[in-house]
Amino acid sequence: MRFLNWLGQIASVTGMNLRNVPARPGSTIVALLGIAGVVAVLVAVLSISAGFKSTMATTGAEDAAIVIRAGSTSELSSGLSADSVNIIAQAPGVAAGDNGPLSSAELFVIVDAPKRGSGTDANVPFRGVSRGGFEVRDHFRLTDGRLFEPGLREVIVGQGAAREFANLEVGSTVSWGRNEWTVVGHFEDGGSLAESEIWTDVRVLQDAYNRGNSFQSVRVKLESPEALQVFADALTSDARLEVTVERESEFYADQAGVLASVIESIGWVVTGMMGLGAVFAAILTMYASVSSRTVEIATLRALGFGRFPIVVSVLAEALVLGVLGGAVGGIVAYIGFNGYQASTLNWASFSQVTFAFLVTPALLVTGVIYALIMGLVGGLIPSWRAARQPITTALREL
Amino acid sequence: MSESLVEINAVSKIYKRGAERLTVLDKLSLSVPRGDFVALMGPSGSGKTTLLNLIGGIDRPDGGSIVVSDRRIDKLSDRALAHWRSRHVGFVFQMFNLLPVLTAERNVELPLLLTGMNGRQRRERARTALSLVGLQDRFTHKPAQLSGGQEQRVGIARAIVTDPEILLCDEPTGDLDRQSGDEVLDLLVALNESQGKTIIMVTHDPVAAERAKRIVHLDKGRLSSVSEAAA
Ligand SMILES: Nc1ncnc2c1ncn2[C@@H]1O[C@H](COP(=O)(O)OP(=O)(O)O)[C@@H](O)[C@H]1O
Ligand SMILES: [Mg+2]
Predict the structure, then answer these.
(1) Domain B34-60+78-228 has CATH 3.20.20.70
(2) Closest residue (by CA) to atom 18 of ligand 1?
(3) Which of A59, A292, B36, B46 is the most buried (most CB within 10 A)?
(4) pLDDT tens, B107-129?
(5) Domain-by-domain residue ranges, chain A?
(6) Are A45 and A270 in contact (CB under 8 A)?
(7) pLDDT digits (tens, 9 = 90+) for B194-229
């Protein structure tokens, strides 16, 4: 009974407080927009890393493995001989296709292409794939044109790269290295990293860039996700090979991790500083709110209301401010940034990767929680002051 | 149960501002019997409000003792004092101090939130109190929709809704025109006479003071004279 009563006190004082909010639209809106702005930036920045991670995650399959030279951390720093490539393809655990084991020995170089908007050059991965290259990637699909002919200087372009860079339409000719290349098709790959790349026949690429008969990586399709163990054991115990085997999904998750955490750290640092500003605005608003009700609060206390309901009511008002600000910020971020196409440098390949900002429900929750924290911090000192005011001096303030 | 409801003994109140000491109440003693209606008069700044606040338990003395309805209140903790106020005193303020966002009914209901009553009981009590002060047709009006005299009557309804023994009124007619002031005074007299409420009323106005049973003058921290009202 006592407790219900006490809740009743809190509820009624809080209710009065909230009804007072529209009486001070100016400072309330400033604080609300301050919080909303911080949340919008936070959610937008985190959506970059979420989108990037999601792209990287869809790149890797559970039932595929990627083999690079032992000690290398990326394809770019790896090197594999033609002999090694053959041994790898014949290893146990590799799924069989119509034309033998499903594997693709690959090599990539980096070429320049002009960005559509600015016209400035940026790095694009130019990958040579073997015949199995299409089969080891489950989501590969041509969206326009045709596949390149083995042996010819023809390329197909991932749809992310086609969108991001100029002059990569089907039928156009581009010159990279000492050669002219013809774009014969566009492809998609389930939103993966490959969509940021340009592909050609690996033999043609070796020839064009004087790579002899060397490769950087071998991708294989496994009989099942569990077959990784047999496959990896066979390769690592083979004295002729010095390779690292990784599940494809893990390989890309590792690569995504570095950049994603850099983006996230930047996001938190920037919005942490902005958050201080928003908290300051919230503090001012709550001070204004409390001081406009000095006499009301003192009257309630004279009637016998305790300090705690006063503190809670002011905090509740601040939290409502936070929730509203957070919701507005989240909505702005969602409408403004979700699905926004961007490209960034993938540090593992030193080339551009295109991806879409991804505003996930979890990010929206994070944004609202951050807004609540800003509101709470903003309300603490003013609520404390409201409750500490001596009743007698407050009653004289008229 | 003692005869006097309020027993003030050698109470002092001193404000310190830097090195300066302002003795507002100087070992003041006063006894108010049950059922009394006291008018407290004195020049501005003489400490009338301070004395009233001490009796109502929203301020503490720097010396002496205050007993109200057999309870020594100057030694209670803040929390106990707040609870005590909600049970034993009703405050009536010069500026009414109603909450502008609440209806008359809700304003009067406020002190009942501190009791064990449920919503229906509270509503009923609040309406009874409002009817008692003649505002039975103003339940759902907000303070801004009421005249000053009506607002003060809402204030009085709020003060009596918990049925306290004592009403402390700080210049209750100070902000009202003569006619509304008279109506408020009529109400206070009626509450004193028919409900037996003990009333201590601070006032500047000799005409208002005449309505009380006796008048107490406060000057330079002391009670200078006590006179029976003419009535
Ligand atoms: N919190 C305070 N600090 C310092 N002086 C105060 C304070 N409160 C009241 N006073 C002083 O105490 C004296 C008595 O005030 P008050 O009780 O309000 O007088 P009255 O109600 O008779 O006009 C005044 O001189 C006033 O300035
Ligand atoms: Mg006064």
Answers:
(1) no
(2) B49
(3) A59
(4) 999 999 888 888 899 999 999 99
(5) 2-57+255-395, 71-241
(6) yes
(7) 999 999 999 999 999 999 999 999 998 888 876 665
Nearest CA to ligand 1 atom 4: B15
pTM of structure: 0.72
**Shortest alpha-carbon distance between residue B91 and chain A (Å):** 8
Do the beta carbons of residue B61 and residue B25 sit within 8 Å?
yes
Contact at CB, A395 and B97, closer than 8 angstroms: yes
A32 C-alpha vs ligand 1 centroid, how far in Å? 40
CB-neighbour burial class of residue B67 (10 A; exposed 0-12, middle 13-18, buried 19+): middle
Taking each helix axis from N to C terminus, what angle separates B148-160 and B119-132, rounded to the nearest 10 degrees?
Answer: 130
A-interface mutation test, from B48, B73, B88, B99, most A Cβ less than 10 A away:
B99
**pLDDT higher than 60, residue B230:** no
Q: Is the pLDDT of residue B141 over 60?
A: yes
> What distance in Å separates the CA atoms of residue B67 and residue B6, rounded to the nearest whole number?
6
Domain ranges of chain B: 34-60+78-228
* Gap from CA of B9 to ligand 2 centroid (Å): 21
- Report CB contact under 8 Å: B113, A296: no
User: Does residue A303 sit at the B interface (CB-CB below 8 Å)?
Assistant: yes
- A391 vs B contacts (CB less than 8 Å): 53, 58-59
Model confidence at A75: pLDDT above 90 = no
Residue B221, classed as helix, strand or coil, is coil
Q: Please, are residues B170 and B93 in contact by the beta-carbon 8 Å criterion?
A: yes
Cα distance between residue A328 and residue B182, in whole Å: 54
What letter represents residue A284's amino acid?
A: L
CB of A282 within 8 A of CB of A377?
yes
Confidence (pLDDT) at A261? 85
Mean pLDDT over the full length of chain B: 93
**Nearest-CA residue for atom 25 of ligand 1:** B45
Say how many Å lie between the CA of residue B47 and the centre of ligand 1. Answer: 6
A80 φ/ψ angles, rounded to the nearest 5 degrees: -135, 140
A20 touches chain B (CB under 8 A): yes
Q: Can you point out the beta strands (E) in chain A?
A: 64-69, 96-97, 100-101, 103-114, 121-129, 140-145, 154-158, 173-176, 179-189, 198-201, 217-221, 243-247, 341-346, 351-356
